[in-house]
Amino acid sequence: MKNKLVNNLTLDTHSRVWWVSIVSLVLVLVQQIAHLFGWEITNDMVNQIMAIG
Fold first, then answer.
1. Which of 12, 21, 31, 47 has CA atoms 20 to 30 A from the CA of 40?
2. Rounded to 10 degrees, what is the CA torsion of 31, 35, 41, 46?
3. Full DSSP string of 16-53
4. Which residues of 21-51 are buried (b: 16+ CB within 10 A; e: fewer)?
5. pTM of the model
């Protein structure tokens, strides 16, 4: 049973869903860091960046 569980937990870096998730997480991190420095990154800017992919 343990071997089947390990086989199902592989990381598929070729998946579009995986890359969209990573980019979204990075953009949220950048937004939070920019907010600390007083810069404003609007949701419209984030949506434009996400639309590129």
1. 21
2. 10
3. HHHHHHHHHHHHHHHHHHHHHTT----HHHHHHHHHH-
4. eeeeeebeeebeeeeeeeeebeeeebeeeee
5. 0.61
